[in-house]
């Protein structure tokens, strides 16, 4: 019996800008999304997220609050994603690991680039968790 894959995602804010990555692997290869990935056995959610952000973008970020839990069930698999609002601490985005591109975009640009309604919802919800 197969189990869902546990993953984390982070909406990283730098001022009014949002960090996005262009995915290099399925699901949604080539699409813009928030950085994140699978949680390894024995790894906390928070550790997995800061690791994934660093591996995909070179950015250091701190977690500011839980946005929520979301699911994706497609031909690519069943994913349970725990998403957080994060604050940029250091670094400039450089695509690495399984990201084809990484950059900060204004909130409006980020909402246009992201193709999945659930991710746009996560970005919107995360705004209230970040102190200006």
Automatic annotation (TrEMBL):
PROSITE patterns, per database record: NUDIX, NUDIX_BOX
The protein's required cofactors: Mg(2+)
Gene3D superfamilies to which the protein is assigned, alphabetical: Nucleoside Triphosphate Pyrophosphohydrolase
NADP is among the record's keywords: no
Signal sequence residues: none
Pfam families the UniProt entry points to: NUDIX
UniProt KW keywords: Hydrolase
Domain Nudix hydrolase: 3-131
Recorded GO MF terms: hydrolase activity
PANTHER family: ADP-RIBOSE PYROPHOSPHATASE (PTHR43736), DIHYDRONEOPTERIN TRIPHOSPHATE DIPHOSPHATASE (PTHR43736:SF1)
Family: Belongs to the Nudix hydrolase family.
Record's protein name: NUDIX hydrolase
